Amino acid sequence: MALLIRGKSTCPLCGQVIGANDEIAATPPFLKSTHQLAAFSDAVFHQSCFLASAERPEVERLLAMYKKKMADAPASLEEYERWIAEAMREIDAS
Amino acid sequence: MLGDIRPATAVRQIARGEKVVDLTNELKRLTFQSRTPEFPVGLEHAIVSKMDGSRWLVSGGQEGIDFANISDFKRLIVHSHGRPTGPSRNADFPFLINNIQKSSFIVELGNPKIIRFNDNGTFSEFRMAVTKWLF
Prior knowledge:
The complex is a heterodimer.
Chain A: E1 2-4, E2 24-27, E3 43-46, H1 47-52, H2 56-71, H3 77-87, H4 89-93
Antiparallel strand pairs in A: 2-3
Chain B: E1 5-7, E2 9-14, H1 20-33, E3 45-50, E4 55-59, E5 64-66, E6 73-81, H2 92-98, E7 103-108, E8 114-118, E9 123-126
Parallel strand pairs in B: 1-5, 6-7
Antiparallel strand pairs in B: 2-4, 3-4, 3-6, 7-8, 8-9
């Protein structure tokens, strides 16, 4: 999940600091670092920057797919740790 | 706000001498058990140090943690990921630079190893038995 220090962290889309009262958009770590949209995984943006980005529709599609799969995850941690790699194959290949 | 980022909230203080493997498993378990229908990914958990030398296990939101509310925040020791992705170029690495910190660790659900990531953009994975990140 994304790490933020308001007043220090910068928006990766505009390079400006994310201020104490700025509206933000954030994503969990849902894409591998090798994915073409990895820059949008596990990140915090100014909300206005994210809403204006060309990649937003595809990011939101993949994020919705990820959360849907997570909602169907096994109930035990041991099963989950075996399940997660196979469950994410479709997202990783998108 | 798009995404659930919450201020860091203390779960408990870490005692000196606690084992890395136990803390790693606790981070994983807390992240996993915090999943709900509204937040199916689970909430981020982390261990941080403060200027007074104390270490705390803290929780945040599904999309992340804002540490700005910890006035005497010193160092991010380790944080959790809900799935194996590796460190992120737009949050994890920049966090080290902003916090003037050389390295930190990531515990990922589904990854038996622990990740050390560095402020120069590199990272590596270790078995927990050889990882000393608390003392």
